[in-house]
Amino acid sequence: MSRYPGRPLISIVTPCLNAAGTIRPTLESLSTQLADDVEHLLIDACSTDGTLEIAREYTHLEIRSERDCGIYDGMNKGAALASGEWLLFLQADDWVPPGALAAYRQAIKENPVAEVICGSAEAVEESEGQWSPIWSVKDTSRKKLSAKNIALGEPMINARLFRKSLFDKLGGFTLKYSLASDRDFLLRAADAGVLQCEVDSITYRYRWHAGSSTMTAFNSLTASLSSENLIMARKHLEHCTSESRDALLTWHSRLTVQAAMNALERFDPGFFTIAAEGFGKNPVWGLAMAGEVLRSFPGFIMRGFKTRTQGHARDIHND
């Protein structure tokens, strides 16, 4: 029997795997914001580090633990189990700032036809015991659900509240991408002309830390993320609207330049295939490539004539 007097207004979905080191602050960030109109589902992928023991201390949580096919599979599972009208995806190493749920509730009342509600977001990094912002997206124009913002800016999937009916209609997250499926989902939403409203409040706080797959500086997953984004850019260019084409072409150009630079650093002959693709979409692609080479040269000198890839490999070896 449901503990809710009616259908919950908001379902919070948290996928996790071995998050014992971060999940308590995540759950505590919600402690003063929960009410009878909110359910919180923890979708665990069989953690072995004490995550579940910590989670069971929070009696409001509805916990399911079973193997999955990655974070997006866990998010899809949570969305399928959710009974709320709206979905909020909270990662197990991030926070929901004070007042975020109240801001969402107010926005829902004031925008009855909205399908997505987007708040502001910031990423914070710990330094000398304090958390300091390293980037934020607060300007309304940067939060609009457009191909330009999603492809060239910060997708901020977690700062957005989605109608469950919309999530189901769009088919949820594809499992073709293990790191960037949220960007694909938002590009599909933008292409479908989904109605979004924006709120001024900060509704999500990302933690920038070494254990994050995406919210950190260059790491071992960066190349895989770039590769997924390039595949995605190709796919969306095949059927994009005229309004989104320019942004997607710019994104594709940046990604092919990045891929070409990586190939060049490895002396990979695949560079020529990537360059051909870049020129195929952008006749002046060579100028962008030359600009990137010039921009990267000072760093090459500072690293002792080592490429970024070589420098990163050395750092991993020394750790």
- Taking Cα atoms only, what radius of gyration do you get, to the nearest Å? 21 Å
Work out the helix count.
13
SSE topology string: EHEHEHEHEEHHEHHEHHHHH
CATH C-level label of the largest domain = Alpha Beta
Main beta sheet: strand number and arrangement? 8 strands, mixed
Total domain count: 2
Q: Structural class given helices, strands, pairing? A: alpha/beta
Oligomeric nature of the chains: single chain
Corresponding CATH superfamily of the largest domain: Spore Coat Polysaccharide Biosynthesis Protein SpsA, Chain A
State the end-to-end CA separation.
51 Å
- Overall residue-averaged pLDDT value: 89
Model regions low in confidence, pLDDT < 50 over at least 5 residues: 310-319
What is the CATH fold-level name of the largest domain? Spore Coat Polysaccharide Biosynthesis Protein SpsA, Chain A
Q: How many beta-strand elements?
A: 8
Which CATH architecture of the largest domain would you pick?
Answer: Alpha-Beta Complex
What general form does the structure show? globular
Percent in helix: 40-55%
Query: Roughly what fraction of the amino acids lie in strands?
Result: 15-25%
